[in-house]
Amino acid sequence: MSFKSLKTIKDKLGLTALLVFSGSALADVDPYVGNGATYDFPDPVTPLARTALNQHHESFWICVAIAVVVFGVMIYSLFAHRKSRGVTPATFHESTTVEVLWTIVPFVILAVMGASATKSLIEYEDTSGSEMTIKVTGKQWYWVYEYVDGKNTPLSKKGKVRFESHINADHKKASLNNLDVTKIKNYLVDVDKPLVIPIKTRIRFLLKSDDVIHSWWVPKFGVKKDSIPGYVNSTWAYVEKEGTYRGQCAELCGTYHAYMPIVVKAVSQAEYGKWYTAQKSGAGKVKIGTSKAALMKAGEKIYATKCAACHQAEGQGLGKTFPALKGNAMVNGPALEHITMVLKGKGAMPKFDDMSDAELAAVITYERNSWGNKASVVKPADVKKAR
Fold it and tell me: Which residues touch 52 (CB under 8 Å, ≥6 apart)?
């Protein structure tokens, strides 16, 4: 063997070792695991996650048993029936026995695995008996949560809670500006407003999308379901213990797909009741003033979370699909046309009619008075009238 061949083998072994140990190091800091389990599923906290884990282990050990038998027979045959021992090759041509065996055995194996998998799939799709319902809407690029109804929970009272969940602004800023992120905790999997749910409650999730296909995925829940435009998907979860559980959009949904994290905070029934009551009373909602300064300040934050991804931070736009707002004729023209565009959308521009009058007034005012634009201030009353 040449020196060059030895060097090649050495390099490959070194690369393999690097991949193995670096993979282990990365797995140790996986925010979804958090329990030191580097080569297995995260610890399940719902019946669905436990079902998926058991299904995986069952299928895995069946495959291991098959591999042991098949490779065992192969290795034994290569050793015991090698040519150097003078063994005469056997022939199984047109053997009815062999034909029957290699048809029945795989069928039995698949039947056993299939029966178990079918039972698991039925469990996944069965959302009956739910005690509360939460609607999850995917948007480019954030999630909208709406508490639709509930049984034996504060949801049974009049009024609903609805809010948007955006990626932590500091994480997004660090990513876009290539800053050092090694010391940022839960990097890219942290949000401004987590979804809060009660433990030991069967919760049905209705998933939809307002633009492209997204996918709501929380590993420790064993839940991954697509949010599809024009279609409502459903899944469920029954969280057994309190904690903060993280996930991400698991469908390639556009330029800022990486900025759609999911954070679910599971709390006790009592704590959830207090949180829900506070949300209904308007606690935590940012009040926006009507002065130009107040609208500009609030509008800057709204623009950064909802508009900058397409129209860019400085309003320079992104090609023909997302035109520049800086010096834009519509932005600098009559306010009604600008308000209507944001409210109803057009082409690649989605509608933002789910925002409050004050929020829309703030972001439109910010666009009309930034980057050299000098147009009129839009008041919440103007937006209300345009609706």
Answer: 41, 44, 120, 222
